[in-house]
Amino acid sequence: MTMRSFPMLLLLAAIGPAWSAPSLAQVGPRREASQTSPQAGGWGKAAVLKEQARALTHKGDELYDDGKYEEAYYFYNEALQRYDAPPIAFSRAQCLVKLGRLLEARAQFTSLTEDDLPPMSPREFIQAQAEASVELAKIRLRIPTLRITVTDAPEPAVKITVDGKDAPHLDQPIQVDPGEHMVIARLQGGGEMVARAIVVPEGKATRLEISLLPSPLNPRRSMAPAIVALGVGAVGLGIGLVTGILAAGEDEPGLTAASMVGLTVGGLGLGTGATLLLVRSVGHSGHTATQIAHRPSLDGAGLLLRGSF
């Protein structure tokens, strides 16, 4: 029997006794029919909540079977707010596994295994807790790690964030969910900032090296060359246009040649200036960094090339 059938067993056989009316010993002495028992009212509210949990769990099962794990998670979570049952908690954690949110799934499975079940709990409750222990062991093997190293700055001077959250340690493995992550490194107090997107494969240890200092291969670029090139281009273009207009009115080979030279120089100057500005804007962080990271694919292989050039 698979754990996917637990919520339905919960709603049919297993929870039948747990959701049944209280015994006479629980209710106490019989009262007149005209009197209202506060305890009976409490049981009525509990019964309503359990009925709601049953319906929400059934809807969650349908969504899970359709592969809509985000939606299924919502309905299981709503069901647990009304009736805290291990089979529902197991299904909710399984949604996180399907979504690749292994760290959250581990936390929920851990909480489920650590719950103290009351005596005489339904068999399905006990089995759900046992299956949670098995899934927990599997998840621990699947959670990857990311190790970030800044090669040219001491740790106290660097601030690292992974997906917007501060990284607790530098040059030490950090447990992350498999998939793509955004790593940002910056010097404390401002200065250089480097952003990297990296894909961390499931169950693997991945290392990312970041340099915050300018590379000799790509030093900081001045705008002066671009401005000069644009200026030369503008002058050449102007000369070419003026001489071209003059050449059109007179049969002067010299003016035609001057116009062609001016237009050519103008085009080259403008093109060079624009290129220098573009290269400078792309490399404004002051260094070139190329990152190769493994991307898991259906056949288990593949490479992803990312970086700023």
UniProtKB/TrEMBL annotation:
Q: Which residues cross the membrane?
A: 223-248, 260-279
Q: Is Transmembrane helix included in the keywords of this UniProt record?
A: yes
Q: Which domain of life is it from?
A: Bacteria
- Give the record's keywords alphabetically: Membrane, Signal, Transmembrane, Transmembrane helix
Record's signal peptide: 1-20
Which InterPro entries does UniProt cross-reference here?
Answer: TPR-like_helical_dom_sf (IPR011990)
Name by which UniProt lists this protein: Uncharacterized protein
